[in-house]
């Protein structure tokens, strides 16, 4: 848990050919997208080092590699699948759920996942910076029904510890806020992001802190993650994981059950399994609700209940994630 994480992040692969060379692959092995300026390519080295060299179907590689299928136009897929612009009253704040708000303190991510539902999100309009904090705090003071703040983005841990600490200390002045949640990929992609300063900050706050990690495949969890997960647990952080169901990556009972067991082994509980948000450029990852229900039934048969994630999808305008009923999938997802 060194403080080298900014250097590791800054030295991410941003050129596809460099990554392919490192993995002993070539453009002949994969249908690479040549122009991906709309959604940049970025993969840090610690994550790449968990990929299998010479394997064009590596499940970690397929999550981050821009391919020509992103150009497909499919009905129902759009640049704004969750209509988040309708719940964005203040720059950097989304108020989707009555008792919770989501803050995008940063538009930067640890890694650019090709299925990201915010790949077209207008972060330039939702990056408040420290100057925009006062508007956020004013909104929270006016909405005392909000008892939980969710730091998302982007990735909240792309913010350095000093700035993050100042924000949390300011937030602690609002008595109505009792819970603090992080949605992050950083501790997975760059384990060194779990610094001593971060741990002290999370352990010292008056908030009940939870951290929802985002991983989709068991291969993301090597032994480099054991110490950071233990340290977060020792800092009284509740650790959960959410996954996206992705065709060709984790859409099998064995892949999902292996992930659940590995999460538990490292002190993390499965939380959500999301159906893909139908964002333009990601249709090739889509898995139908009917297939998802079959997979979930297989998981229920194989896993103890506490290791079965909840199958959900997000529907614009709903006040919560929408559970997919395992017996009425067609009705629930129309």
Structural summary, described in words:
With 334 residues, the protein is α/β, with parallel strands linked by helices. Residues 329-334 have low confidence and may be disordered. It has a nine-stranded mixed sheet with strand order 1-2-3-4-5-6-7-8-9. The longest helix is centred in the last third of the chain and has 14 residues, at 289-302. The chain is built from twelve helices and nine strands. The chain has a single domain (75-333), classed as Aldolase class I (TIM Barrel), CATH 3.20.20.
List keywords for this structure.
globular, 334 residues, 9-stranded mixed β-sheet, disordered C terminus, alpha/beta, 12 helices, TIM Barrel, 13% strand
Number of domains: 1
The parts where pLDDT drops under 50 for at least 5 residues are 329-334
Q: How does CATH name the architecture? A: Alpha-Beta Barrel
Kindly provide the radius of gyration, computed on alpha-carbon positions and rounded to a whole number of angstroms.
19 Å
**Would you state the CATH class?**
Alpha Beta
Number of strands: 9
Strand order of the largest sheet: 1-2-3-4-5-6-7-8-9
User: What is the count of helical runs?
Assistant: 12
CATH superfamily: Aldolase class I
- Give the N-terminus to C-terminus distance in angstroms: 46 Å
